[in-house]
Structures are given as C-alpha cells and as structure tokens.
Amino acid sequence: MKRAHLFLIILGLGLLLYPSTIPPFQPSSLAGHWQGTIDIPGMKLEVNLDFSLKPDGSWVGDISIPAQKAQDLPLSNISLSGKEVSFAIAGVPGNPTFKGIISDDGTKISGDFSQSGKTFSFILKREASRSERAKQALAGFDSVVEKGLKSLNVPGVSMAVVVEDKVIWAKGFGFRDLENKLPMTKDTLLAIGSATKAFTTFTMGTLVNEGKLDWDTPIHNYIPWFRLYDLFASQHLTPRDLVTHRSGLPRHDLTWYNNYKASREELVKRLAYLKPTADLRQKFQYNNLMFLTAGYLIEVITGQTWEEAVREHVLNPLEMKRTNFSVLDSQKDQNYALPYREEKGKIKKISFRNITNMGPAGSINSSAEEMSHWLEVHLNQGKYKDKSIVRAKTVEDMHLAYMPTGETPAIPEITPADYGLGWFIDTYRGHQRVHHGGNIDGFSAIVWLMPQDGLGFVVLANKNGTALPELLCRQAADLVLGLKAKDWIGEAAKRKAKGKKVQEKAEKKKFTRRRLGTRPAHKLEEYVGEYNHSGYGDLKVFLKEDQLFFTYNGITTPLEHWHYETFNGQKAKDPTFQDMKLTFRTNVDGLVAALEAPFEPTLEPIIFHKKPEAHLSDPAYLQKFVGKYILVDQTITINLKGNVLTAFTPGQPEYELVPALGHEFTLKQVKIIRIKFKMDDQGKVIAAEFIQPDGIFEAKRVE
User: Fold this and answer.
1) Contact between residue 597 and residue 608 where contact means Cβ atoms under 8 Å apart
2) How many Cβ atoms from other residues are within 10 Å of residue 124's Cβ?
3) Are 88 and 95 in contact (CB under 8 A)?
4) In 3D, which of 25, 16, 24, 130 has the Cα closest to residue 73?
5) Per residue in 225-259, pLDDT tens?
6) DSSP code of 613?
7) How far is residue 200 from each of residues 194, 309, 311, 518, measured CA to CA in Å?
8) Can you spell out the DSSP letters for 119-173?
9) What is the CA radius of gyration of the chain?
10) Closest C-alpha among 304, 281, 291 to residue 201
C-alpha cells in the first residue's frame, strides 16, 4: 500500500513526510500531549506532539503540523535523560531534530529545532489532548440538546462528535417513536437526506483513484446517448459539473418526487426535455437530478447498482453495517425513528417517503454512531482505523471549492458558501467548515466537518425541516473551540414564534387573489383525461362525486374551482400539491387540450398536453377504419400499419394519421388537416371528414 505524501515547507525546503498513527497514552514525565510553536522567520509554526512509553521502556511519538496539513508524523530517536529531551521527525530530509529542556514543573519544553544546518528556537507546553479538551468542553451539553428539543418542538435527535480519530461524544435524546415513548439512541436509524450526496462523490473518488473515471471527461464519453435540453451542455457536461450544481438546470424535483415507476435510466433520459435556466457553469443551481445522474454513471462504469458500489467502496470499509439505502430496510431494523412534521404547533406522525430511485441524491439511512465513522475518514485524510480507504489527495479535492453559490449568509458569523464535490464549503466564526445538510419527509440531518480543527459533528433528527441539527453543531463548536458563547437555539425559537404569526397572517390573505363570481368554461367531465409532459411524465385528472381530482406520481389531490380556468389544490393526505394552482387550456376547436402546472418555481409553468383516447392507438380498434373512401373523383385508401393508420391518394405521398383529441386524427406531414371518421347508429364507419381551414370535406366509404 502506498503511503500518502505530505510536504512541510520551512525556509523554502520541500520535505517529504510520511504519516503514522497515534499510540495510546501512558503517563510519564514526557508522556502526553504537547502543543507549541517553532519560531521560524516570519511566523510561529504551530506543532502538536504526542509521546507514550512502551512496555519495553522505549518511547514512541508523533507530530502534527496543522498549517501544512501534516498529521501524526512519526518521531524517531526519542531520548529522555533527566531533563534533557531530544527527538527527530522520521524519514524527512535535512534531519529535522528537536533538542530541549523540560521545565522543573514538567509543563514546558524549550530548546532548539534544527534542519539542514538551520536552527530555530521552539517552545512546547503540556496540554490535555484535543480530544480530552473537547470532552471537557461538552460536559454539560446534554442540557443544551434538551433545550433544543423543547424550544423547537422536535421529537428526538441523535448526535455524535468526533475529534481527529476518536468519537468523544455520542448520544440520543427524546423519542424515536413519540406515541410509544421509545427513546432515541446513538444507534437509532434515521434518514440523512442530501448528506448522501457526499457518499456518491466519495465512491466516484475511489473510481478516479482506480483510473476508471476522470472528473473532467464529458459524460457522453461514458454514456453515449446522454443528452440535455441544451446541445452545448450535452456535449460538455462532466462528472465534476454533475456534482457541483452547475449544469444550468434548476431543481425540477417534482419529476422524481414520489415517483416509484421510473427507473434511474428513464429519469436520466428525461433530462433531455427539462429546460435549463442558465448556461453550463454559469451559476450555482442545486439539482438532485444531476446527483442521480452521477449515481447512474457509477452503475454504468462498475456494472453494479449504485447501492452495491457504495457498500463496497464506502460502507463496508468504514464498518457501517446497519446503514442502508431505503426507509423500507430501516423499518426492518429493531431501532429506527419514525418521521414527524409540525402542523399548527402540534407534532404529527407522517408516512415514510421511499426515494430509492433517487438514492444517489439522498436515500441513505444511518445512525449517529455509524456516521461517526464517516466523519473519521474525512478528518484523517481518507484513513479509517489506520487503513487507507481513499487517497488523501482525493479527500482534499472533495473539500475544495469548485462553484460559488452566490448566496449571502443570514448571519455575519458565516461567510458566503462555495460548493465542492458533494459538500458546501465556508467558514464559521473564522474556522473552515465543510458540511452538508439533509431534509426528506419527517427527517432533518447535518454532517459538519472542521478539517483544520480536526473536529466533526453529525446530528440526525426525526422532524421535517427543523434547524435544530445545524444549531446544535454551532453550540457544540463554540464550546469545543472556546468561542464566545451565543444562544443560537434561543434566537431560533424567537424567530420561529415571530414567523408563525407572519405565516398565519399571510394565509388569511391568500384568498384576496381569487376572482369571485366566475365559472369554468367547460363541464367538469371535459377536463377529465390523461395529460403528459416528456420530462415530467403523466398527470391524470378524474371526476369523483362531482369534484375534480388529479394524480401525479402517485399523489392524489382534490381540486376546487378557483376562478375562470384555474383550479386550486386542496388539503390531502399528502400535502405536496396543496394550494397549487392548475390552469387548463382550450384549443382552437374548443376542447380542453392542456394544463399548466407551476412544478418548477424558476420557470414558466410546465405544460402537460392532454393525451388522445388510448384506443386510437389500438390496432384491434383501428381495423374498422381500414378501407376506401371517395371524395369527388378521388379514391382515398386508409391502411393500418402496426398500430398506425395511413392515408393514400394516387399522386400524393402516403400520410400518417396521428391520434388527436375529439376522436380525431392529424396528418403528421400536414398538421393543419384533421380527419374524423363518421359512424352510423350501429357503429359502422360510413365516411371520413377531412377538416381544413377552408372547409370540411366528406369522403364516403365504399365497400
């Protein structure tokens, strides 16, 4: 196994360093954790050292240099004689060596550091280890979590804190099942939502390491049929573009939401019909469908399902044995959380939302305990329990900023965020932060890394859209880093109370947009039918007990007439389309021909076109129209080819008849002309009407 290469730069010298591991602590005059600085020209270089005494009486130790991202580098030639101590950094050119004296009280070491003939003074102070200090800082954190649950009305939360390669705090609070008072624990399974995205990019990173994937090679090189709405983007979109939200497409989330019928391949093919709102790489636009495509790309390259690839490359090496890809699997476990949302101040249990077809963007379920393993591999340069899972350079690449989000933070403590490979990157109160939240029906989550501080948090909650995970991370980070205390939870509770009053007032005003005294232009049964959009799929409108309903992706919503040709979505078991307005379109023939639905907020309404009756494509039904028809002195022959009718007149090309509304057909080659077959009372076809702008011409059928 190749070991990672790190570079320490002192006075312009590039020194090749090799990482090692931190041995267990054993008390002695030198044993323990030391922090200090080397006084080199222009700066004080921070260093952290750990020493321990082996059973045979020899010393082992390591050094970390945060400014150079050098961590746990092995020390050699460690010698302690009285108060005199010396040691070197192993395997580094220039023989970097420390020689110093331990103070009488054993709390300081001061002396000289030499390398390549240059000498600089250094001073070290005995400190509690970073992990021990973090434990002490979080000694009273339980009360902070309890306050958060109560103040923000959250059923339960599970949280873990990692310092470098140690889990220093992991607990559950509240209830995973509120009705049965089953407690939340650190091992309870919850959905992590979009925090899944980093698992997809991590898997892609392992494929890059194996030479199977290149971040900057266009997607069509791997998937030849791949196409977007925009031709240029189709030809130039790369894997890096997929996972940095810069494809040019807005979210278009309703394409996949609650869609259990479309396969991943089908959803990727639908991208060709979804309009962009920007050019490729022009702006940041969060897009789950691009991460779906990244997951499908993994499947194409590996020949595995995305789930199999993630389990092989991530979950198995990290010993995340209970972590799964479907809420259906979570419910087979003995310890899983139920999903909840808040309605008018009350907590209500809701149904699980299974999003396995969109797995690469957000379907993973895990526990705080197992997610702590995920924190460790990111805080330790791709290593878990001394084993390299992915190259250190690959982890660093994931944490680099590739796309500015263009968003302004709501608070001064956080800088504007950029997006890396499946991660948001910004600074929190002057400390680098790499993070990603996750929200799916009934669950909220956040994974928060502070790589330069060796600190990581994961917080999972079983409530829809709660800010508590983020706020707990802020409260914990303030304590561990020794920052000025701020009551993040208390402030959020006040904002929530104010927002509730504003929301109630706004809801009362929504009816002022309604035009009273209007009626629909058609009978309700005329709106009934199936409607289709090539990117969004089918939408069905039906009539039940004199009320219209519509079903899209398995979600059924009752409709009330709002005004004119607009109908409003009413309250339903699934509230996705509540208060959404659908507007129907009438064509030139006076038929209900389409409906507009505001499915993508950044675009004009999505237009679903009404589909002709299904039997107009049924060969058994179409057979009755086959035959000869006479118009003046012309003979028109109607033939059936497969499930398509054609019309042929001598001297003219053969025309294809395309099913249309009103039990009619359109000539594919001359769309302005329509054909309608006439039948007698017994259902026998007796004529064909050719409907043109200048008149309707009737051709009699002949035996």
Assistant:
1) yes
2) 23
3) yes
4) 16
5) 999 999 999 999 999 999 999 999 999 999 999 99
6) P
7) 10, 9, 11, 51
8) EEEEEEEEE--HHHHHHHHTTTHHHHHHHHHHHTT-SEEEEEEEETTEEEEEEEE
9) 33
10) 291
